[in-house]
Structure formats: C-alpha cells, structure tokens
C-alpha cells in the first residue's frame, strides 16, 4: 500500500470516527461528512489515472455533484434547525417531538 492510499484511507477513517464520536453540533457533523466526501473525491480522481481506465473519469464529477447537493441540503437543515430550535446542538433535535 502506497503512502497516497494510506493517507486517503486514514482521512476517511478519521472523518468517520469524528462523525461517530463528536456529535455535539450539527455543523461539526456536516464538516465530517464533507471531509469524507472530499477524501472519496480525491481517491476517485486518482484511481483512473493509476489504472489507466478512461471510462471512470466521469465518476469524480458525479461525486462532486452529489457532494454539493449534500452540502446545500445540510446547510438548509442547519439554518432551519437554528431558526426553530435556537441552536445547532444535536441533542435538541428529537424526531419524536416533531
């Protein structure tokens, strides 16, 4: 395993651990999701170059599109929850109270 693969895997693992264990604010959860998407985007951008497969060159653009949609939806949820609940703490958001 090369150093580049190790750095992508460790970035994804650290961001997923941050998402799992550091769930106090919604903005920190969104940042962890964005770092996961960024590591997946970089890995998908490097993979066709290493394997010399030109058929997979569109995959990073699709991943970037979905990442932008996810970021927009996450920020919209952040604004809506801040307006209704007064803060972005995740313990204030309870689906049973809706």
From TrEMBL:
Swiss-Prot/TrEMBL GO biological process terms: ATP synthesis coupled electron transport
EC number: 7.1.1.2
Family the UniProt entry places it in: Belongs to the complex I subunit 4L family.
First-tier enzyme category under EC: translocase
Purpose: Core subunit of the mitochondrial membrane respiratory chain NADH dehydrogenase (Complex I) which catalyzes electron transfer from NADH through the respiratory chain, using ubiquinone as an electron acceptor. Part of the enzyme membrane arm which is embedded in the lipid bilayer and involved in proton translocation.
Reactions listed under catalytic activity: a ubiquinone + NADH + 5 H(+)(in) = a ubiquinol + NAD(+) + 4 H(+)(out)
Main location: mitochondrion
Source species, domain of life: Eukaryota
The UniProt record lists the keyword Ion transport: no
Membrane topology: Multi-pass membrane protein
Protein name in the entry: NADH-ubiquinone oxidoreductase chain 4L
Matching InterPro entries: NADH_UbQ_OxRdtase_chain4L/K, NUOK/Mnh_C1-like
Gene3D superfamilies the record matches: 1.10.287.3510
Cellular compartments annotated: Mitochondrion inner membrane; Mitochondrion membrane
One family name in Pfam for this protein: Oxidored_q2
GO molecular function: NADH dehydrogenase (ubiquinone) activity; oxidoreductase activity, acting on NAD(P)H
Keywords: Electron transport, Membrane, Mitochondrion, Mitochondrion inner membrane, NAD, Respiratory chain, Translocase, Transmembrane, Transmembrane helix, Transport, Ubiquinone
Transmembrane domains' residue ranges: 6-22, 29-49, 61-80
GO cellular component: mitochondrial inner membrane; NADH dehydrogenase complex; respiratory chain complex; transmembrane transporter complex
Annotated source species: Pygoscelis adeliae (Adelie penguin)
